[in-house]
Amino acid sequence: MSTEKTLPPTPKKLREAREEGQVAKSNELAAGVQLAVILLYLYTFGNDIWKDLSEILLLTFDQFEQPLPTAFAAFFSALCSFFFKDLAFMFLILFFASIASYIGQIGFLFSSKSLIPKINKLDVVKNLKNILSIKSLVELLKNVVKMAVIGCAFYYLFHQYTPSLRNMVYLKPIEAMQVTVQIIFWLWGVVVLCYIVFFLADYSYQRYELLKNLKMSHEEVKKEIKEMEGNEEIKRHRHSLHQEIQSGSLAVMVKKSSAVIKNPTHLAICIYYNEDTTPLPKVVAKGADYQALKIIEIAEKEGVPVIENIPLARGLNKDIAIGQYITPPFFHAISEILAMIKIRG
């Protein structure tokens, strides 16, 4: 049925969703990056931090015979000094690393719409349904899997280090401390690696869920195209673009392209998309063999992104004529390419 939402979202639909803050992202990356930053920071500055902590401990013992206000002032001063000297820089790195982890996933995005309170969030019945929804169960399952994976990794490492742990009673305090630190670093490193795996799995799931929720019906796609084509500005732009296509100026069309899809030297398809003036991405030029090489050469010279995708290039060459908009079977692949290009800038 035409009302069934079986088609992938159009670039316009994805853009509107992005403006509302609906993007695929995983919190696991930020957590993993933060743990990695702390691990590297302690590995680099651990000796200095340990030395300063030891001095604070000695200072505490030295202040036992001093009046409480004097001892407290000395301890507080040493603690502040320790924070600004040894920890402030780490927290600053953590802050920027966390921001970078999200920018790396979704690019630069600030959505004021997502900050506007929604009345339907006050619906108790709906909120209860959300709590008991499949999404909540998936989140619970993810947490259980994370705990199980990390627990198994910890068990394996402890099993490997069992001889060292048993022999620690025969070691000097400094040697025992070195073994302990080594074990902690190994455990921490394993957790970081686990979070990388968690991120890859979670991001794939989040993107799948987003695209599934944004699916469109045939009627919605037709309505969107009709609305865009009815805009006078878009009509003028389309007429101008059509004239350029008919003029046969290959270099001009390649230069105007948003991306070139190649296969890898036998086919080259030029895709043009402007979110303000075109309802859907359009094939503006294409060529085979020598002409394909020429298109690729011009694109690389003009800084137009060239993407190698053999099935997509073949499909576009076969099914989409020059000057035509892409059809639903190509929405998902083209949208991903355009989104990737936009994030890269």
TrEMBL record:
GO terms for cellular component: plasma membrane. Pfam families: Bac_export_2 (PF01312). GO terms for biological process: protein secretion. It is found in: Cell membrane. It comes from the Bacteria. Keywords: Cell membrane, Membrane, Transmembrane, Transmembrane helix. Its main location: membrane. The chain crosses the membrane at residues 90-111, 140-158, 183-205. It is a multi-pass membrane protein. InterPro entries: BsaZ-like (IPR006307), T3SS_substrate_exporter (IPR006135), T3SS_substrate_exporter_C (IPR029025). SUPFAM superfamilies: EscU C-terminal domain-like. Belongs to the type III secretion exporter family. PANTHER family: FLAGELLAR BIOSYNTHETIC PROTEIN FLHB, SECRETION SYSTEM APPARATUS PROTEIN SSAU. This is EscU/YscU/HrcU family type III secretion system export apparatus switch protein. It comes from Salmonella diarizonae.
